[in-house]
Specification:
By secondary structure, this protein is of the alpha+beta class. The chain has three helices and seven strands; from the N terminus they run E-E-H-E-E-E-H-E-E-H. Strand 3 and strand 4 form a beta hairpin. The radius of gyration is 17 Å and the shape is globular. The relative contact order is 0.26.
Amino acid sequence: MRHFNKESLDYQFIDKFEAGIALTGSDVKSLRLQPPHFASAKVDFLGGRPYLVNLDIPAYQYSQNQTQDTTHSRALLLTEKEIAKLISWRHQKYMIIPIAIFFKDKWAKVELGVGRKMKKYEKRAKIKQREFERGV
């Protein structure tokens, strides 16, 4: 089951990555039951390591520690080569946002998109092209 970020439709991506996420047990159980909230979620670099920031995973209702913060930063599991590539794109003013969260076998994964936010006229042109292709 994939949970998609609807805000990612406003971006034009030049590359996509698949990364693992360091989650707690209650986070994983919660993801299996309900979708996360992607509002303003992005990837930031803290100390040279990538972290998923502002991803709101609702608290698991049967969890013992009910006082947990649902939007804390979560570490991303990437190779050093992928991290270096992401850092270089970040220096070029590209945004790195989560596109989808899904389970691959038993592991929670996140699909990351590297790109820029589309301008309003680009969005309108995209919609116009899509409608034109449907009509033909």
